[in-house]
């Protein structure tokens, strides 16, 4: 009997340990995903607040420069942002972990009730499902200030994207900013890619045939990363605004 | 129990112990995992809730800051004016026209929160509105004493009322010139209006023009009629012009109680009750229509064309007014028409038989008149029971120098 019991106990213990390892591992992965989701939501709230309330972003600032009105958007700034920040996030609300897109809709009174009027957008332009892990959208109503006597009503919709392209672009933009401000000329990070990464027509792209592309702060010198896997990227800054990326 | 049995029992217990330990460990890890996940999930939920709360508040503030297209005023300003006026429809004069503040609120809130998902209420403050009066007086000889009393006493009455905090002003429009006599220190002398009139910032006497913006203001009824007795068309012109503002300028202020006072002992256009083809009635109707259209309260002062008159042309000598038709018409048809006009416009008719009391009557009108005020502005859908977001803002009523509260509720329809 003793001859039977000891191996059985041993097998039981091994099975239990295996189960525990698998369970703990999957639980940790799930936890990381939920934590990342929470971080993204928290960042989305921060970005939205900055976009709508900061005078560096879209908030209307009094002519004497004293203060800015929360949630009152200066249409002149909005127009400029929609021209200057196509495919890249504005620096006033840049988040280096996530990418985002901002869409602003004006609401006007038509003959059959309220309808959408003018629209503006800036930030990331294209993001295809499959190339990113997660996305979240938040909306807030805002006032759109054309002049003292003309203030319309509208909505800001912010879509925050969590994906490999956004993480890599975030690292590169941070490296570029540090170089531009004279803080640090070289930095490195470990990145993971599931699809080929390339730099085409001054845009960083990810994907096979139909790629998702976005702009970066600095011009890049990078070789295409054709296969999926983990890479350590080392970015070296060169004046006036160039990053040389080595793997 | 032999030793082999004891050994078996010991081993079984050992295995059971390991199994129990393993199960407990798994259960513990499982619960720890679930709870830590729950923590993240509830944080995410709290974050979303907070965003929705902030979004709601931001929405209310943003909407209040938007401007109305015709006036260029923000909804905050319009609501302040509406609170002061006690009315949700505001009239900004001929250039801009009327603005329905409730409608302006509704389409914006419907667009942002969805129809049936919000409710707004602003209790209006209890305020006393300013009063502006235009009076139109017949200047026939029989009205001499009444007008003298008005131009002499009303300025003092207005000063007294203003000292009590009730803002009132009056413009007296005269339909013609006087050629009558008044008693002065026991003697009868020609009535010199300018000598008696005490103009102040709040009391003005002006002659009514013959024509105003294409309207004939003074019309005689037939060949025997008298244009200085046309208080019908005269009233239409006076209401259209509004009170005196400055040299060559007339107009009503915004959000005031408008009062008109026709003063006469004749039917419009004269000839007592004998005006042919209903001419007097047509002139009367013009004044009544304008008063109703512009929401003007009419307080008619009816005189008695009875007794004697003294005219300056006849050296202030006394002349008896024939009882028929003068006196009977003033106490009959004129009484009926003036009463009808006053009732239809929610005013009241007063008899000028005691002319000394006319200034006191004006004081009484000013002190007692109540503007048509609504107690609150309410828009949207009455909130259902259950959970809803709420925000209370302070709304400045600039002209009053105070604030009123604005309540907004929002919920998601299931």
List the main descriptive attributes of the protein structure presented here.
heterodimer; A: 247 residues; alpha+beta; 40% strand; B: seven-stranded parallel sheet; four-stranded antiparallel sheet
Write the layout of secondary structure elements.
The complex is a heterodimer of chains A (about 250) and B (about 425).
Chain A: H1 2-53, E1 59-61, E2 68-74, H2 75-84, E3 99-110, E4 113-123, E5 132-147, E6 150-163, H3 164-180, E7 186-193, E8 197-200, E9 203-206, E10 212-214, E11 219-221, E12 229-238, E13 242-246
Parallel strand pairs in A: 2-5, 11-13
Antiparallel strand pairs in A: 1-2, 3-4, 3-6, 5-6, 7-12, 8-9, 9-10, 12-13
Chain B: H1 3-65, H2 75-85, E1 89-91, H3 93-96, E2 98-100, H4 101-113, E3 118-123, E4 131-137, H5 144-163, E5 168-174, E6 181-184, E7 187-190, H6 193-196, E8 203-207, E9 211-212, E10 215-216, H7 231-241, E11 244-246, E12 249-250, E13 257-264, H8 279-293, E14 297-298, E15 301-302, E16 308-310, E17 318-320, H9 323-331, H10 333-344, E18 350-351, H11 358-368, E19 376-380, E20 389-397, E21 402-410
Parallel strand pairs in B: 4-5, 4-13, 5-8, 13-14, 13-15, 15-18
Antiparallel strand pairs in B: 1-2, 3-19, 3-21, 6-7, 9-10, 11-12, 16-17, 20-21
Helix pairs in contact in B: 1-4, 5-11, 7-8, 9-10
Q: What's the N-to-C terminus distance of chain B?
A: 71 Å
Radius of gyration of chain B: 37 Å
> Given the structure, what is the number of helices of chain A?
3
Helix content of chain B: 40-55%
Query: How many E-type strands of chain A?
Result: 13
Describe this structure in words.
The complex is a heterodimer of chains A (247) and B (414). Chain A is of the alpha+beta class. Chain A is built from three helices and 13 strands; from the N terminus they run αββαββββαβββββββ. Chain A has helices at 2-53, 75-84, 164-180; strands at 59-61, 68-74, 99-110, 113-123, 132-147, 150-163, 186-193, 197-200, 203-206, 212-214, 219-221, 229-238, 242-246. In chain A, the strands form three sheets. A six-stranded mixed sheet of chain A has the order 1-2-5-6-3-4. In chain A, strands 7-12-13-11 form a four-stranded mixed sheet, with helices on one face. Chain A has a three-stranded antiparallel sheet with strand order 8-9-10, with helices on one face. The longest helix of chain A has 52 residues, at 2-53. Chain B has helices spanning 3-65, 75-85, 93-96, 101-113, 144-163, 193-196, 231-241, 279-293, 323-331, 333-344, 358-368, and strands spanning 89-91, 98-100, 118-123, 131-137, 168-174, 181-184, 187-190, 203-207, 211-212, 215-216, 244-246, 249-250, 257-264, 297-298, 301-302, 308-310, 318-320, 350-351, 376-380, 389-397, 402-410. Chain B has 414 residues and is of the alpha/beta class. In chain B, strand 20 (389-397) and strand 21 (402-410) form a beta hairpin. In chain B, strands 4, 5, 8, 13, 14, 15 and 18 form a seven-stranded parallel sheet that branches. In chain B, helix 5 (144-163) packs parallel to helix 11. Chain B has eleven helices and 21 strands. The mean pLDDT of chain B is 85. Classes of the chains: A alpha+beta (247), B alpha/beta (414). The A-B interface holds A 1-2, 5-6, 8-9, 12-13, 16, 19-20, 23-24, 27, 30-31, 34-35, 37-38, 41-42, 45, 48, 52, 69-72, 107, 109, 113-114, 138-143, 148-153, 155 and B 4, 7-8, 11-12, 14-15, 18-19, 22, 25-26, 29-30, 33, 36-37, 40-41, 43-44, 47-48, 50-51, 54-55, 58-59, 61-63, 65-67, 69, 72, 74, 107-108, 110-112.
């Amino acid at each position: 009997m003793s001859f039977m019991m000891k191996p059985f106990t041993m097998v039981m213990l091994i099975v239990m340990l295996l189960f525990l390892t698998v369970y703990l591992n999957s639980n940790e992965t799930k936890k990381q995903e939920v934590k990342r989701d929470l971080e993204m939501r928290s960042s989305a709230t921060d970005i939205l607040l900055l976009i709508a309330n900061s005078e560096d972003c879209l908030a209307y600032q009094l002519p004497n420069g004293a203060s800015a009105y929360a949630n009152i958007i200066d249409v002149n700034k909005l127009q400029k942002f929609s021209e200057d920040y196509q495919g890249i996030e504005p620096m006033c609300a840049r988040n280096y972990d996530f990418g985002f897109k901002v869409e602003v809709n004006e609401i006007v009174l038509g003959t059959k009730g309220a309808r959408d009027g003018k629209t503006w957008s800036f930030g990331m332009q294209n993001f295809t499902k499959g190339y990113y892990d997660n996305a979240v959208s938040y909306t807030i109503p805002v006032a759109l200030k054309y002049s003292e006597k003309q203030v319309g009503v509208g909505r800001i919709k912010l879509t925050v994207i969590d994906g490999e392209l956004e993480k890599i672009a975030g690292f590169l933009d941070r490296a570029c900013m540090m170089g531009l401000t004279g803080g640090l000329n070289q930095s490195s990070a470990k990145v993971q890619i599931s699809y080929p990464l390339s730099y085409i027509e001054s845009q960083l792209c990810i994907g096979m045939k139909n790629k998702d592309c976005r702009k970066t702060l600095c011009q890049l010198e990078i070789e295409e990363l054709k296969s999926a896997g983990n890479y350590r990227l080392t970015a070296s800054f060169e004046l006036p605004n160039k990053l040389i990326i080595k793997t | 129990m032999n030793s082999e049995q004891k050994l078996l029992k010991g081993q079984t217990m050992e295995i059971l112990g390991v199994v129990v330990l393993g199960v407990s460990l798994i259960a513990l890890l499982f619960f720890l995992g679930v709870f830590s996940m729950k923590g993240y999930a509830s944080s995410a939920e709290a974050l979303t809730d907070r965003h929705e709360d902030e979004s709601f508040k931001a929405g209310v503030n943003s909407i209040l800051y938007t401007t109305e297209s015709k006036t260029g005023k923000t909804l905050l300003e319009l609501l302040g004016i509406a609170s002061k006026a006690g009315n949700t429809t505001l009239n900004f004069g001929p250039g801009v026209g009327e603005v329905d503040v409730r409608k302006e609120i509704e389409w914006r809130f419907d667009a942002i929160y969805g129809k049936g998902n919000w409710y707004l209420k602003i209790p209006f403050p209890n305020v006393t509105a300013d009063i502006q009066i235009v009076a139109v007086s017949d200047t026939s000889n029989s009205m001499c004493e009444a007008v003298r009393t008005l131009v002499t006493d009303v300025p003092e009455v207005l000063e007294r009322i203003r000292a009590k905090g009730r803002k009132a002003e009056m413009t007296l429009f005269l339909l013609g010139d006087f050629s009558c006599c008044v008693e002065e220190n026991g003697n009868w002398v020609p009535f010199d209006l300018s000598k008696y009139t005490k103009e102040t910032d709040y009391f003005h006497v002006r002659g009514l023009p013959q024509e105003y913006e294409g309207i004939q203001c003074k019309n005689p009824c037939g060949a025997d009629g008298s244009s200085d007795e046309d208080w019908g068309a005269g009233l239409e012109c006076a209401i259209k012009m509004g009170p005196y503002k400055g040299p060559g300028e007339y107009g009503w202020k915004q959000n005031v109680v408008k009062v008109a006072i026709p003063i006469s002992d004749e039917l419009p256009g004269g000839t007592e009750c004998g005006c042919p083809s209903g001419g007097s009635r047509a002139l009367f109707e013009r004044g009544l229509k304008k008063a109703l259209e512009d929401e003007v309260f009419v307080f008619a002062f009816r005189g008695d064309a009875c007794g004697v008159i003294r005219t300056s042309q006849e050296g202030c000598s006394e002349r008896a007014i024939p009882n028929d038709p003068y006196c009977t018409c003033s106490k009959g048809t004129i009484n009926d028409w003036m009463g009808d006009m006053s009732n239809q416009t929610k005013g009241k008719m007063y008899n000028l038989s005691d002319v000394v009391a006319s200034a006191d009557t004006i004081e009484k009108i000013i002190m007692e008149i109540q503007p048509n005020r609504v107690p609150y502005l309410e828009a949207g859908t009455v909130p259902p029971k259950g959970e809803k977001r709420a925000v209370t803002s302070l709304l400045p009523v600039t002209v009053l120098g105070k604030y009123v509260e604005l309540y907004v509720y929002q919920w998601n329809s299931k």
